[in-house]
Amino acid sequence: MKNLIEIAGILTRNRLKKIEVLTNTVLNKKGHMLSRMYNGIINKQFSSDKDAARSLYNTHPSDGRYTRLKSEFKKRLLNNLYYLDINAPSFSNYNRALHTCHKNLTLIRILATNSARNAAVDLAIQTLNQAQKYTFTDVALICVRFLKDNAAITGNIKLLKYYRALIKKYQEILNAEMQAEDWYQDLIIHYTNSISTKSELGSLADNYKDKLKKLAGTYHSYTLQYFMYRIWALSHEIKGSYHSTLKVYRQFEEYLDKHPVFKRKSLTGKINIYKMNCFIHLNDFKNGELTAISSIKLFEKNNINRYAFLEYYFLLAMRTGKYVKAKEIFNEVIYSSKFPAFSEDRKEKWRIYEAYLNFILANANIDPDLLGRQRTRRFNILKFLNEVPNLSKDKRGYNIAILIIHILFMLQQGNHNAIIDRTTALQVYRNRYLKREEDIRSKLFIKMILIMDKEFFEHEKTKQKTEKYLDQLAKARYTYEGSPMDAEVVPYETLWSMVLKILKEQGQ
After folding, report:
1. Which residues of 134-156 are buried (b: 16+ CB within 10 A; e: fewer)?
2. Distance (Å, rounded) from C-alpha 183 to C-alpha 228?
3. How far from each other are the two terminal CA atoms of the chain, in whole angstroms?
4. CA 487 to CA 197: how far, in whole Å?
5. Looking at residue 480, what DSSP letter applies?
6. Contact 37, 28 (CB under 8 A)
7. Predicted model pTM
8. CA nearest 219: which of 183, 169, 178, 268?
9. Per-residue pLDDT tens digits for 397-406
10. Residue 166, pLDDT score
């Protein structure tokens, strides 16, 4: 009762007469400006301040009426975040605990600064217990610091010593977690931006992995375990050992099975995205599809991670010749209500996928009945080329993919003169920008296209003079890192077989 009296006293002195939030009453009033603002945003009617100001007040964004409404709307939106329904199915126990702990930290400060120290201490002990269960080290450290201060104020020497020891322990764990985070970020930025060679990066990953294994064995921390498994997996992935990468993720899954307190759908989904990357490189459609079927329910219908997962599923289908399935996945993405809200970069990537899918469907001798009643929109190569941005060295993968698919469509149409006009630019681009070791496959494929041009599109001569490059292509490792640098939507070997098939048919 003492704690309740303290809390009630704070409310009596400082309680707001009106809590400014977006209630259902406000949102259900059709003419209410806050309701119109909210519905305009969630229904995607407003994509900018200009759109909203024009619709709501027929004015410009700097109009005082609009700026006041926007400020009030933002304040109420933020206030509403205190009242999220954490009992909703989308919240895992882990995320529910994390949300509650961080909310409690704010409440502890409010109680303490308003002379409700007993209530603050009780809440701090409760929050510390929760943080210890889920290994929220940063939360635990804040709680212990507050409790140590209270022990000093109340003259409890025994508790003071106990909390000092806990602080030392959590500081060590937090330092280890921050170090692990730094190692992971250092590795990722080198991996994504190709700052280091693969051999250098592999050595760096092995070094970090060995250090993290020791830390993870010393301290009880989910964060350390997570970064250990990620870096361990990356150390294999960098070397192209995807079977070993899969083994690491399976060990991670076993760890989570033994420690279900850390298990949650979002994490399982993320691990399965990493596994799908392995299946792509291993051309293992069977296990990839099994993973996909079991995983798709882990992602909410419009969750952005669902579309990241579907991208891997699409690429796996394309790379393993499951083109009907690829079309099905493509349609799910492109016709989803979420697609218009995709970033321009992501939309551009799916436009490129659409171009390759259309070329493949036109040249792979697929029985139309297998496509069933799947939706199909007319593809226009010229419209596609007009929609994508100008070539940039910062988007080598996109550029290569665009250059190649354009030439493939021109070849399909028998427009050899147009190809000849573009080969000089293609050669210049290859020599100027394709200098990384990861670009070897694209360089080889472009070389084969240039030979086709040099041999005046004659099937037999082209086939004969590109055989050695085709052999080199088969030996060169394919890599997909999910970035704009990754150009190979369909294996170049598959595309080349279609090129030769088209040349043969056109030569008859």
Report:
1. bbbbbbbbbbbebbbebbeeeee
2. 10
3. 94
4. 19
5. -
6. no
7. 0.83
8. 169
9. 578 888 899 9
10. 97
